[in-house]
């Protein structure tokens, strides 16, 4: 294999992955746990640094030194009001330094301030190792995808994270563009397709209208992009956890808002429940000794989830309308609707899009 091979990295809010192009096909590389996705978690312990699934698995017992959602911090001003909303239930400590967000973490003996770039670099180092183990060669060159709304500061910060990890970031490309290239390659598209890429991830919603021309080479033309960087899966999760906190207050007369361990356990169980609700109407959340010895057992329905998040879910169509308007296209001109990101698996999201397109079925690629 060419020693100058480059890999592609999706550095997501909740999960990340690394891929390589071989024999004309995109391969997403499995990690050491035989999974194609790696949780975007970093944990500092007395014995060292944990990354990915091992970091996430001990998060509930190592609250202040397990870092996640770092993508929401990169290149971020500390005093931004929308950003502050996202941090409401973060158990680790963030600090202001030179107007930017920093994270205070480390072993109990020696804590220090980390930049988000430094934490991202730790995750990138893990992805680099995954690629090297699979390809059996050193990896230096990477292309990293970022949200379409990322500004110059955020893009440069992403490049800096790569540099800290010992990587040469050849390019930072928009996630919808990366999705369009992947779609064209994996679906072996021939001819022209006008696609709307609906990328609903952990921290944002990007909608892009992309013209794909596939012949001897693939040509990608992004005709328009509209984003909502205050609407992602983590925003939906925060609303549901607030709802569960209210249920606990009503049922047990207990206020657990300042009990970060209890809240993280709620998040963990809700994450499992949300997956089940994608294919079932209801599921049970059961947590032993959640707080002060009481057990929390609660049935949550898909309908409740949709009601709690109704306002946010209804707003997913606004970027779609803006993208169509900017591209000066009627919705019926769109050949295919392509869903990207874990939050697109929420049935209500799929229904809203289907209703908007009067029954047209969207395609899922991730």
UniProtKB/TrEMBL annotation:
The keyword Nucleotide-binding applies. Pfam families: HSP70. The keyword Coiled coil does not apply. Keywords: ATP-binding, Nucleotide-binding. One of its GO terms (molecular function) is ATP binding. Belongs to the heat shock protein 70 family. This is Uncharacterized protein. It comes from Biomphalaria glabrata (Bloodfluke planorb).
């Amino acid at each position: 294999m060419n020693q100058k091979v480059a890999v592609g990295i999706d550095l997501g809010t909740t999960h990340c992955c690394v891929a390589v192009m071989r024999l004309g096909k995109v391969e997403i590389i499995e990690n050491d746990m035989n999974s194609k996705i790696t949780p975007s978690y970093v944990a500092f312990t007395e014995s060292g640094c944990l990354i990915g699934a091992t970091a996430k698995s001990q998060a509930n017992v190592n609250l202040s030194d397990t870092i996640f959602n770092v993508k929401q911090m990169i290149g971020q001003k500390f005093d931004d009001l929308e950003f502050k909303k996202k941090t409401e239930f973060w158990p680790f400590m963030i600090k202001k330094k030179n107007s930017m967000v920093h994270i205070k973490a480390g072993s109990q003996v020696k804590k220090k301030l980390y930049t988000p770039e430094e934490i991202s670099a730790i995750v990138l180092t893990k992805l680099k190792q995954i690629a090297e183990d699979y390809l059996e060669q050193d990896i230096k060159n990477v292309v990293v995808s970022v949200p379409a709304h990322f500004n110059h500061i955020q893009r440069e910060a992403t490049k800096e994270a790569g540099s800290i990890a010992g990587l040469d970031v050849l390019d930072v490309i928009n996630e919808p563009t990366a999705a369009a290239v992947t779609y064209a390659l994996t679906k072996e598209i021939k001819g022209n397709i006008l696609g709307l890429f609906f990328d609903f991830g952990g921290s944002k919603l990007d909608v892009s209208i992309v013209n794909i021309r596939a012949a001897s080479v693939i040509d990608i033309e992004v005709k328009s992009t509209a984003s909502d960087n205050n609407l992602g899966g983590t925003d939906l999760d925060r609303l549901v956890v607030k709802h569960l906190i209210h249920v606990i207050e009503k049922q047990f007369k207990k206020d657990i808002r300042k009990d970060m361990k209890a809240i993280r356990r709620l998040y963990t169980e809700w994450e499992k429940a949300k997956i089940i609700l994608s294919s079932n109407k209801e599921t049970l959340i059961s947590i032993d000794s959640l707080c002060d010895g009481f057990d929390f057992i609660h049935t949550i329905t898909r309908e409740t989830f949709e009601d709690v998040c109704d306002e946010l879910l209804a707003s997913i169509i606004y970027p779609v309308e803006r993208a169509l308007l900017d591209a000066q296209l009627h919705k019926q001109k769109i050949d295919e609707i392509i869903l990207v990101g874990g939050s697109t698996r929420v049935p209500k999201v799929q229904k809203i899009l289907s209703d908007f397109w009067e029954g047209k079925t969207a395609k899922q690629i991730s």
